[in-house]
Design a protein that fits this description.
Number of helices: 9
Structural class: mainly alpha
Shape: globular
Distance between the termini: 22 Å
Number of strands: 4
Strand order of the largest sheet: 1-4
Order of helices and strands: EHEEHHHHHHHEH
Radius of gyration: 16 Å
Strand content: 5-15%
Largest sheet: 2 strands, parallel
Amino acid sequence: MNGTFAAIPPDGRILYFARDRASFRFLSHFYPSPIVIDGDTWPPVEHYFQAQRSGDPAYRAAIRAAETPGQAKRLSASPDWPRRRSQQSWFRKHGARPRADWADVKLKIMERADWEKFSQHPPLAEMLLATRPAELIEDSPVDSFWGLGPDGRGHNWAGRILMEIRTRLRANA
């Protein structure tokens, strides 16, 4: 984006997973923007987020060492998921379980990670602020929790958290 910002689409919605990915890739949790949290450096948000599924130091080291955010996500797969989704799971391989309260804490963890991403990278914060007043939507065709899912009626928590961060950044400016 080199100092210029992509135009907000005419419908006022930024669908950053697919439709508007080229222009708004920086919104992704896979975007290369290292963050430091509690003295530890994480390659991008996705690595930090997935590492929080367990307090096991070996698990966290494996997630941190993952070469890509996609690999970190595959390593963090629950052993209870279908084999095709969990075949690379660190938990399955080690006979371990993710933390029991994951469903209760994952939104706060993602919110913290996104806050750190944008507060530690002022150019990214500036780009996020420039998306206002657009609705930010992760138009994932498969994930109904973080995105819109296959029927387009998902929760879009990824986009909702980014809009919260955008509001906080604006209030702190």
